[in-house]
Design a protein that fits this description.
The chain has about 325 residues and is an all-alpha fold. The protein is built from 15 helices and no strands. The protein has one domain. Helix 2 packs across helix 15, helix 6 crosses helix 7 and helix 9 runs parallel beside helix 14. It is globular and about 65 Å long.
């Protein structure tokens, strides 16, 4: 019973880690001491699992895939993740600049994780990092251009008296293209959870779908959409199962280049997270002066960076303890 309660609590801690950009679910699993068991349980899913399901070999499934552990973690994460999503959506809507400053600190400080995990730092790793940056920044520029065009259209069409209703949740889009976008985003984000130092929510930010996910897949949110919620959650589960083997292959065969590429993605994403924007183009800009808004952004940036620094400290401590136990057992 104690182990069940412990795993429930660990799942409750993993829940917010999965929805806060910059906080890695994989790193949190390492800190909690469940990373190896989680990867092993997910890595075991294969075509044989489907045969066991069709043959109703429930005992085999329960033991082979450590389902008691996985379901307990899932229950704890479900309990905490949806209230956390409501809070983040509120902060993004009501206090966008300090919230982006907080996430800028989270992601900026998180770059230490892939750099620390690189076993080699050579020209190939540098090229991988530069390639990732070259991919990410143009995506951010394109996103800024679309945001500026949308804002211009709203200013031209919507009367000032109607602007008060702009905080309403937009209607969900059920077109095939948008459903595919949600499915692919869910699979990619869930796969990132398996990588220590990489945040799945950070990738959702990079893909430009993060705030939509906060609203549409959360049953506690006013804009909850069952269809998009089912698509996203199902794709997350499929991504965890399907990408576990690919990630294991990349980490075994191309560990340092993979980490360098992921670090480059994080560096390039800072373009999107910079809290101060030019009014005309929505591109990153320096603040006009040191006012209350600038001071608040600075404070939230320091808070975000401090959280990641603390996680890095405990992560190193957990790794040192594991190394010590391994040496003792040897």
């Amino acid at each position: 019973m104690f182990k069940v309660i412990s795993n429930l609590l660990k799942g409750a801690i993993l829940g917010p880690a999965m929805v806060i950009p910059g906080v890695s679910g994989g790193t949190m699993a390492l800190i909690l001491g469940i990373y190896d068991r989680l990867i092993k349980a997910l890595h075991g899913f294969s075509l044989g699992t489907l045969k066991d399901i069709l043959a109703l070999r429930l005992d085999t499934l329960w033991q082979k895939h450590d389902l008691k552990f996985l379901l307990t973690l899932l229950a704890g994460a479900t309990f905490s993740v949806f209230p956390c999503m409501l809070l983040i959506d509120y902060l993004f809507t009501r206090h966008p600049q300090p919230t982006q400053g907080f996430f800028f600190g989270l992601v900026g400080a998180s770059i230490i994780f892939p750099l620390r995990l690189m076993k080699r730092k050579a020209s190939i790793e540098l090229l991988c990092a530069l390639a990732a940056i070259a991919i990410t920044i143009p995506l951010g520029i394109n996103r800024d251009r679309h945001l500026a065009e949308e804002q211009a259209d709203k200013t031209a069409v919507v009367a000032p008296a109607e602007n008060a209703s702009n905080d309403k949740v937009p209607a969900p889009d059920h077109t095939p293209g948008n459903c595919i976008r949600f499915a692919l985003s869910g699979a990619i984000a869930s796969a990132a959870m398996l990588l220590p130092g990489i945040s799945g929510s950070f990738l959702l930010l990079l893909l430009g779908i993060y705030q939509e996910v906060l609203v549409f897949i959360n049953p506690l949110a006013p804009g909850f959409d069952p269809l998009l919620g089912i698509i996203f959650i199902a794709s997350c589960i499929a991504g965890l199962v399907l990408f576990a083997r690919l990630i294991n292959f990349l980490l075994v065969r191309c560990h340092s280049p993979t980490m360098a590429f992921l670090g480059g993605l994080m560096i390039g994403s800072l373009w999107n997270l910079w809290p101060f924007r030019s009014p005309g183009s929505s591109s990153p800009a320096w603040p006009a002066g040191f006012d209350n808004a600038t001071a608040m952004c600075l404070l939230t940036f320091v808070a975000g960076a401090s959280i990641i620094t603390a996680l890095a400290f405990y992560n190193r401590k957990a790794n040192n303890n594991d190394d010590g136990r391994g040496a003792t057992e040897a």
